[in-house]
């Protein structure tokens, strides 16, 4: 099987950041943040990541994305007993994004 990733890491946060940066570029969005339900940034790529994670958690929790910002999208991801929020500045998601995050988090568990 051909591995198309050019850069990789065994460290969870670094692996997530590398993956999110590649996805951010591929999707053509300004920022991608992976955070907790409380809004704490775990990893990300792009601009204003701490703020993006915090706003994303608030939007996702209150389901008010169209009211707060039409340029943001959030997506919840549960792995075992942990809930994560992916926030996109640019409103684009693909199944590949969630699958990649899940793969990295489980591999580094």
Walk me through the structure.
The structure is a single chain. This protein is of the alpha+beta class. The chain has one domain (12-107): Beta-Lactamase, CATH 3.30.450.30. 43% of the residues lie in helices and 26% in strands. Strand 3 (72-79) and strand 4 form a beta hairpin. Helix 1 runs antiparallel to helix 4. The model is unreliable at 1-5 (pLDDT under 50).
Q: What structural category characterises the helix and strand content? A: alpha+beta
Strand content: 25-35%
Work out the count of structural domains: 1
Strand order of the largest sheet: 2-1-4-3
Major sheet characteristics: 4 strands, antiparallel
Overall form: globular
The fourth-level CATH homologous superfamily is Dynein light chain 2a, cytoplasmic
Q: Compute the separation of the termini in Å.
A: 24 Å
Summarize the helix and strand pattern as letters: HEEHHEEH
Radius of gyration: 13 Å
Short description:
This protein has 109 residues and is an alpha+beta fold. The chain has 4 helices and 4 strands; from the N terminus they run αββααββα.
Lay out the secondary structure.
Elements: H1 12-27, E1 31-36, E2 41-46, H2 49-62, H3 65-68, E3 72-79, E4 82-89, H4 95-107
Antiparallel strand pairs: 1-2, 1-4, 3-4
Helix pairs in contact: 1-4
State the main characteristics.
109 residues; alpha+beta; Beta-Lactamase; 4-stranded antiparallel beta sheet; 4 helices
